[in-house]
Design a protein that fits this description.
The protein has about 180 residues and is α+β, with helices and mostly antiparallel strands. It is built from 7 helices and 6 strands, in the order ααααβββαββαβα. The strands form 2 sheets. Strands 1-6-4-5 form a 4-stranded antiparallel beta sheet. A hairpin with a 4-residue loop joins strand 2 and strand 3. Helix 2 packs antiparallel against helix 3. The protein starts with a helix and ends with a helix.
Amino acid sequence: LFALVLPSLFCICSFPDISRAIELLDKLQRTGEVPPQKLQALQRVLQSEFCNAVREATVAAFAASEGHSHPRVVELPKTEEGLGFNIMGGKEQNSPIYISRVIPGGIADRHGGLKRGDQLLSVNGVSVEGEHHEKAVELLKAAQGTVKLVVRYTPKVLEEMESRFEKLRSAKRRQQNNYPQ
């Protein structure tokens, strides 16, 4: 029985329901089928910092494989040269606002905190999720000193959005070529 339970418990370790596994260990301990010291050792592992780190890393890895990651804070100094990145998207385009380009040699590039594919979530504490493109531009232009951005890396969504925009541009070009003005 112990040989069957142990691998299952380590699989559970990567998922959020650790407390359920500990309850099952308590029930096993009450049956007396497994020596209590072995069950207590498993409980310690499940409640350990290591298991918690494995669980968090697994969640992050699954999120990254799906093209998502946890939000992060990037602080950039605002200078006369601007912030050194471009954005695209917005409510009017039925898409989130994204970092579409980090300008080589610009502030964002030198800082290294932003990357193409980052979704812009907020600017200096003001959410831009579900907002128009122009609102994000206004917040970025109005910012002074250090600009605090909250972003999340979601490159697959950006790629899908860019593909959709390219299809629309191609259709518009074809339409213009078929109907000269």
